[in-house]
Design brief:
By secondary structure, this protein is of the alpha+beta class. The protein is built from 3 helices and 2 strands, in the order αβαβα. Strands 1-2 form a two-stranded parallel sheet. Strand 1, helix 2 and strand 2 form a beta-alpha-beta unit. Helix 1 crosses helix 2. It is globular.
Length: 76
């Protein structure tokens, strides 16, 4: 949830979010995702428009994020 709390300071009007997750099926990834979902539920000005798996790897995360972000012009 702290991730979304931080975003409210950076983007007080809210916006569309692209969630880049870690390694699929791990407990830490599930916990972080659950916190983000809870934060978005508390701050309805934000919306998760897509979620991709980045495998805790910068190259993979960047590639996956770029592929999805090109479809959404207003991702914050």
């Amino acid at each position: 949830m702290q991730e979304v709390e931080h975003m409210t300071k950076l983007q007080p009007k809210g916006g569309n979010l692209l969630e880049i997750r870690g390694l699929a099926g791990t407990s830490i990834d599930d916990a972080i995702h659950s916190g983000i979902v809870a934060g978005v539920a508390k701050h309805s000005e934000f919306k998760i428009v897509s979620s991709v798996t980045g495998d805790w790897d910068q190259t993979t995360a960047g590639s996956e994020g770029e592929t999805v972000a090109t479809a959404f012009c207003a991702v914050v």
